[in-house]
Structures are given as C-alpha cells and as structure tokens.
C-alpha cells in the first residue's frame, strides 16, 4: 500500500461560466473538508484567475494541460511558467480525452510532464485502458506502456500523482469495481517498484478516476492501493465533491 496523504482532484474539463463557477467556488468555500486530504481543482484555463482569487487557499489549483517547453511562438498554448505566475500548483497530463480525442502520444505527454516538473508544477499523470484493450486482456500492458512514457522523461517522481482512469469508466456512469481498480493500482505500484524504485513505489499516490461519485467513493477508498480520486462530473457539484474528499475517513 502507499504511504502518501489521501488526494482528491476535481477535473472541471471544458465546463462552466463565470456565474456557474462563482457558485461552485462558494459551495467549496463553505464545505467542511477533512484536514488530512490534499484537495485540488482544475478549472478551464480562462477561469483559473477567477478561481484563484475567490477560492479558499486550502484547495490548490491545477491546470488541465501545459505546453511542452518554454513559452513563445506557440499559438493557443499556455506555458508552465505562466501557470506558476498565476498561482497554479498542479497540471494534469495524459488525460484520456487528450490521448484519444486530441491524439497526444506517450512520449509527448511524458515530455510535457517533465517540463512542467522542471518549472515546479506538480503533475497528475493519467493512464488507463480502453474497453477493447481490457476485453483483449491488455489492461496491464497499456497502463505500463503509458507509465513508461512518463518514466522515460521525468527525473523524479516526488511531485507526481498517478491517476488510473480506465477510459470505459470516464463519464459513462460505469465505475470500476473496487476490486478492478485495486488490481490495477497494485500492478502499477509493482511496476514502479521494478522499474523505478521501492521508495517511489511506496510513496507515489495512485488515485482512481472514472465515474466516482458521492455514493461509490467510500467502498473504493477502502482499498489499500487507492490513495484518492480524480473526479470529473461529480466535481462540478460542491457538496458531492466534499463527500468524495471526506470519503477516506
Ligand atoms: C475524468 O475525466 O478525469 C473523470 C474521472 O471523469 P468522470 O468522473 O466524469 O468519469
């Protein structure tokens, strides 16, 4: 099992308006959140400043992406330096929507993560298999290949949280069973032990994502290698997100 603090991230994706986000922030500000949990939310880029100015400091802010290197002539991109400048502490890389809709590959993702880390952003590194890959018995192969994309590029895992997010569970309402998630989390930890180090394997938090909600989180949180959650849909509802944050206690 891991030794790290429970971690819950909310990925707001491409959702929200100034008004809906101000309501969500107000709900988060008034929620009771257990002390012993790292809580992070990832608004769309254009609302990060609004959220940073209005959200309690106890909740840290993540971006949903960052450019692969230093800023410059890269139209439409946002650099890690700019994210640090605006008060962001984290960035998500390797999310399945970026892998499978935008077409980012393992090495590109690994390089983006490495650059973000070099600028002192912490990284939520996502991995996960598609349904056909699971059905073909390739879940571990796919996850290990994606992990290798990170491992090939980063020099330290201290500021990385791994999110196992089976693609078939994301936004589908089909959550992995606690046993299915635990099986992959244990395999990921074992991969880290063999391919990085025993220390990194025990210290790196491995969180689960994919249709986590206020009702299914407690059973998942009981599993020994589930160190927290990355939450999409349910993170847009403040009170439900608070239930997920508090699910380990
Ligand atoms: C996600 O996109 O990271 C995610 C887990 O989404 P959802 O909770 O909506 O399945």
From TrEMBL:
The entry's keywords: Isomerase
Protein name: Triosephosphate isomerase, chloroplastic
GO biological process, one term: gluconeogenesis
One Gene Ontology MF term: triose-phosphate isomerase activity
Family per similarity comment: Belongs to the triosephosphate isomerase family.
Record keyword Isomerase present: yes
Quaternary state and interactors: Homodimer.
